[in-house]
Amino acid sequence: MRDLELAEVGDVSGRSLPRLQCHIGLGTLSWARHGAARVVGLDFSAPAVDIARGLARDLGLGRDRAAFVGAEVYDAATAVPDPSYDIVCTGVGALCRLPDIGRWAETAASLVAPGGPVPLRVPSAHRCPRRRDRLADHVRLLRP
Asked: Coil, strand or helix: which one is 111?
């Protein structure tokens, strides 16, 4: 977890959040370790989700505190266990790999409770050169 992410989101104590495109769950588990009451990681890779579940077990976090689901990110609204969350997160650079960023933004917005944030870090141009402008268009959709 980067200091910038912690500063942007603020105190997560007692809050719930899914982390979309979580891969093996390290970022998701970091939010739990920073006090989030419930975290849910979502990734399309079944092997990555299995690793994330194992890491949660190793940390002594039950499914009520840290759950991981395998699904395409666009199906997150029906794949995650709760209908809404206090905060919706994703990792740096995760949006670069998506064919439809607008659809991702709609998915993320559908999961966040009214007034909740969807913090994003747009990667620098050298990490995501073809998507930089399109990402900037959708960041506005996710900020009140």
From this structure: helix
